[in-house]
Amino acid sequence: MNEHLKYGGSSLVNHVTRLFNLFVTEECIPNEAKRGLVYTLYKGGNKPKNLPKSYRGITLLPAMYKLLERVIQARINSWININSIPFPSDQQQAYQKKIK
Fold first, then answer.
1. CA 66 – CA 84 distance, rounded (Å)
2. CA 95 to CA 77: how far, in whole Å?
């Protein structure tokens, strides 16, 4: 996480909380908040550097957006636990964290 978020203090926490709550109540996240930068990385080894398949793309997302994703995930997990929703089901356990 970026240092300004980590050490921003209670004032920053209050502003970010209000902003995130607004996103949730309005059910809308501005596109600017989700915009990432795409970089290509050379895969390495003996792959020829002149071929596109020798590279892979990565997207760097804004720290605030990644934090918002974690907050929403925590809220969903909390709601699932409070309401005793049997999730994930036995048929959908691949790539899922165990919630309970």
1. 27
2. 15
Query: Could you report the per-residue pLDDT of 29-49, keeping only the tens digit for each?
Result: 999 888 999 999 999 989 999
Query: Residue 83 to residues 79, 90, 100: CA-CA distances in angstroms?
Result: 6, 18, 12
Residue 34 CA to residue 11 CA, distance in Å, equals: 23
Q: How many CB atoms lie within 10 A of CB 68?
A: 19
Residue 85, φ and ψ in degrees, nearest 5? -80, 125
* Nearest-angstrom CA–CA distance, 34 and 64: 9
In the three-class reduction of DSSP (H, G, I as helix; E, B as strand; rest coil), residue 11 is classed as: helix
Condensed to tens digits (0 to 9), the pLDDT of residues 56-98 reads: 999 999 988 999 999 988 988 888 889 887 766 666 666 566 5
